[in-house]
Amino acid sequence: MRKFWESLAFWRRWDDRERAVAVKIIGLLVAAIAVFVLIGTVSYLFHWKEDMSLLSDPAMMDAGVKAGNAAGKLGYSTGHLLVCRLFGLGSFALLVILAAVSARLIAGRWHYSLLKTTLVALFGAFVASVVLACIGGFAGAQNAFGGGLGGEFGAQIIAWSNNLFGVIVTPILAVILLLAYLFFTSRRFTDWVYNLGKAPKAEKKPKKQKKADKAADLKAEPEAVQEPEEEPAPMEEAAPADEAEASPSKPASPIKPDGGDGEASASGAPEKSASGDIDIEIVKDDTLEAEVKELKPIDNRMDPPEGLPWYKFPSIELLGEHAAGKREVSSIELTKNNNKIRQALQTYRIDVEDVKAIIGPTVTLYKVTPAPGVKISEIKKLQEDIALSLKARGVRVVTLADSVGIEVANEQQSIVPLRNLLNNDSFRNSKYELPVAIGYTITQEVKVFDLADAPHLLIAGATKQGKSVGLNVIVASLLYSKHPSELKFVFIDPKMVEFSAYNGLLHHYLAVLPTAGDEKEEKAKAIVKTPADADKALASLCIEMDERYKLLSEAGVNKLTLYNEKFKARKLNPEKGHRYLPYLVTVVDEYADLTMTIGGSPEARKCAKNITNSIIRLAQKGRAAGIHVILATQRPSVDVISGIIKSNFPMRIAFRVASRVDSMTILDAPGAEKLIGKGDMLWSAGIDTERIQCGYVSGEEIDSITEFIEDQQGYKKSYNTPYYLP
Asked: What's the pLDDT at 16?
C-alpha cells in the first residue's frame, strides 16, 4: 500500500502534514462509501421484491419512480449486485475490506498492507456463499433475495458440485470447506477443536499452595538421590534432633523467587547434606515466567526532528516466547552435584563450611565457603579434578567476594528469549543512551549495558557458538529503543548473508555512501559486502568523524549529547552547517576475513591495511562524535586482534573458543574455552569477567521486526556519509 501512495507524483511533493490530512480525508470518504453500501445492502433484504421492477424495466429506472430501498435506486442496484448476483448474505464479508481500509486511513496507518485482511474477507464471502447456497437448497429458499441465500454465485457452485459429486457428498464438502476456513483464520476455533473431548482443566491452586506442594516434593526427594554405594543417611536425619523438633514443618529446600529485581534469594531453613557438615541453600529466580508487559519506548527519547513523527516502534508481540526452551533444574541434580563437589574436595583434605546453589539458565553456581585456613588457590587448582568428578561440561572455578564459585553446566540448557529481556524493567526503565539487553546472568538478572559508554565492543567466538545471534540481539535491542532520527547503522558483512535482513531499513536506520545510481542500486549496496566497499565505508566514517569534531568544536561542547541538546534548543544555526547528529553504530562481522592478506594482491594488502587503520581511528576518537564500533570475529588470533585494537575495545564478549590461547587473546584471561556453547558467553568491561547466557532471537523474528519497520513511511532520502575518493 505504501508503494501505491509513493507512486503518485503529487504525493511525493507533499510534506508529512499535508499527507496526513489528505489520508484522513480519503479515509472519511471510504467510510462514507462503506456506510452507504451497508445501508443499501441491508435495505435490499427487505425491499428487493418491490424494487425488482426497477431493474426489469429500464424505463422505470429512468423515470421518477421512488425506490423502496433506503439508499435509493443506486443503493438497490448495489444490493442487487452483491446479494443476488454475487455472494448472497456472504457479501457482508466484503464490507470488512472497506471498513479496514477506512480505519487504517483515518488512523494514519496507510502504509500497512491490507493483503491479509482482503484475502480473509474474500475467501470468507466465498465460503459463506457456498454454505448458504447449500442450506438454501435443502430449505427450499433457492429464490430468496432473488438469487438464493448464497446468491447466484453460490448457487452455480452448488449446482456444479451436485452434478459432479452428487447431492449427498456436496453438503459434506461444504462443511469441510467451512471447517477449513475456520481452522486457518480462527485461533479460538482451533483451540476448541484441540480441547474437544478432553477432561476439563483442574482448578489452579493458589500460588502459596503451589510453593508448599513443591517444597514438600523437594523434601521427599533427597532419599532417592544418594548414590547406592555410599548409602548415606537421609538429609532430614542428618539434622540434630532438637532442631528437627523445633521446626518440623520447614521444607527441605524451598525455592522462593525474589520480588522482581531479578536477584535470587532463599527462604526457609538450609538443607543439610548427607555428610552433616554442609548446608545447601538452593537459590532460584523465576523471571523467565514473569507476565509479559506492553513494551514502551525508553523514556529518554527526544522529539524526532523533521520527519517520521508517526513512526511506531516494533511491538513486543513480534518476538516469540520460546516456552519450549525453558528447563528446570531438579533437586536431584543439585544434591548429586553437591555430593560430588564435596567428595572431590575431601579427597584433597579441603574442608568446607557451606555450599549454596544459585541456579542460572545455563549453569548453576555452587558457592563454596572454605573452612578457616584453607587457601583459595588450593581449590582453584582442582578445577580439572572437579570437572572429572562431576562428569559435566563448562566447569569453571572463580573467585567471589566471600567464597569460591564452582560453575557447573545444567543437564538441560534453557533458552533466554529476547522478548523476556526487552520486557524486563531494567531495560524498559533504562536511562542509557544506547541500551543493549544482552542476556541473563547466573543470578537471573537481565544484563543491560550502554553501548555509548562502552564505547566499542569486541566479540569473538568459534563457529555456531552464538556470535551471530548475539549480534542480532544487540541490533534488535537498539531498534526497540531508539527512533530512526537518533540512530543509524553501518553493516559490514563479508559473508553476505548475516545482515541481509536489515537491507529493508535503508530509509529508516541505515547510513550509506552516496551513490549516483537509482534507489534499487542504493539498496543493493546498503549492506557492505566486499573488502573494497568496506574500505570506502570506513574511510567515509572517518571523514564524518572529523566533520563532527569540527561541529563540536564550533559549538563549544565535547560530546554528542551536549551538541544535540544545543541544537534542539535552537542555539546552533543550521545555515552555518549545524545539524542534528544521530548515533552511528558500525557493525563489522568476520573482521578476520576483511583483513586477510595471505596470497593476496598488493591492492588487497593495501585494502586490508586501510581497513585496520580506519577501525583504529574510529575506536580511538569515535566516542565523542557518537560513532561506535562493534567488531566480531571467529578467529581471535593475535595477528587479527592486535594490541592496539584491544586497548581501544575495553568491553569484550567471548563465546566458546577453541583454545585457552584464544581466550587469553580476547579476554586477557582463560575460561572461554570452558564454555558449553549455544549462547554461553563471558562478558568483560575491563575488570572482571561475568558469565552470561546470551538472549535468543530467531531469523523469523528479525524478519518480522524489519518488515514492520519497512512497511512504515521512511525518510525520502537515506542518510549519507561523506563521499570518499581513494
From this structure: 60
* 130, 94 Cβ separation under 8 angstroms: no
Strand 457-460 relative to strand 651-655, pairing: parallel
Strand pairing category for 363-370 and 352-359: antiparallel
Q: pLDDT-based confidence at 323, cuts 50/70/90?
A: low
CA triplet 3, 519, 507: central angle to 5 degrees? 70
Q: What would the grid cell of residue 469 be? A: 545471534
Going across the sheet that includes 583-588, the strands are 446-450, 435-441, 689-694, 680-684, 651-655, 457-460, 627-633, 583-588, 487-492
Of 38-47, 327-336, 493-502, give the range with the top mean pLDDT: 493-502
Alpha-carbon gap, residue 442 to 328, rounded angstroms: 14
What residue type is 3 in one-letter code?
K
Q: What is the second-level CATH architecture of the domain 210-243+262-288+328-409?
A: 2-Layer Sandwich (3.30)
Cα four-point dihedral sign 189, 190, 195, 201: negative
C-alpha cell at 76: 438497490
CATH superfamily of 418-715: P-loop containing nucleotide triphosphate hydrolases (3.40.50.300)
Inter-CA distances, 139 with 84, 339, 489, Å:
18, 77, 65
pLDDT at residue 267, as a whole number: 38
Distance (Å, whole) CA 619 – CA 428 = 29
Task: Tell me the C-alpha distance between 73 and 61, whole Å.
Answer: 8
Number of H helices, E strands in the chain: 29, 17
> Cα separation of 2 and 15, whole Å?
15
What's the DSSP call for residue 338?
Answer: H
176-182 contacts: CB < 8 A, separation 24 or more? 177/127, 177/130, 177/131, 178/127, 178/131, 181/123, 181/124, 181/127
Q: Facing residues of 120 across strands?
A: none
DSSP assignment letter at 204 = P
**How far is it, in rounded angstroms, from Cα 78 to Cα 85?**
10
Which element (helix H / strand E) includes 208? helix 207-220
In angstroms, what CA-CA distances link 660 with 215, 407, 654?
A: 42, 17, 12
C-alpha cell at 111: 502504509
Mean pLDDT of the region 179-203: 69
60, with CB counted inside 10 A (0-12, 13-18, 19+), is middle
Which among 498, 497, 476 is positioned nearest to 487, based on CA atoms?
476
Residue 13, C-alpha cell as written in the block:
511533493
Q: In what order do the strands lie in the sheet with 352-359?
A: 271-272, 279-283, 352-359, 363-370, 404-409, 396-399
Give the residue extent of every domain in the chain.
Answer: 2-194, 210-243+262-288+328-409, 418-715
Q: Which amino acid is at 326?
A: K
pLDDT at 107 over 80: no
Q: Give the distance, in angstroms, between the CA of residue 298 and the centroid of all CA atoms in the same chain.
A: 16
3-state SS assignment for residue 611: helix
Backbone angles phi and psi of 588, in degrees to 5:
-115, 115
**Three-class DSSP labels, 283-313:** EECCHHHCCCCCCCCCCCCCCCCCCCCCCCC
User: Please, are residues 479 and 509 in contact by the beta-carbon 8 Å criterion?
Assistant: yes
Instruction: Name the grid cell of 541.
Output: 566514517
Report CA dihedral (259, 262, 263, 269) to the nearest 10 degrees.
Answer: 40
How crowded is the C-beta side of 521, counted as CA atoms within 13 Å? 6
Cα separation, 289 vs 281, whole angstroms: 22
Q: Which letter does DSSP use for residue 265 in this model?
A: B
* pTM exceeds 0.85, yes or no: no
Q: Which three cell numbers stand for residue 510?
A: 541505515
- For the chain, the residue count is 726
Position 547 scores a pLDDT of 93
C-alpha cell at 592: 578476520
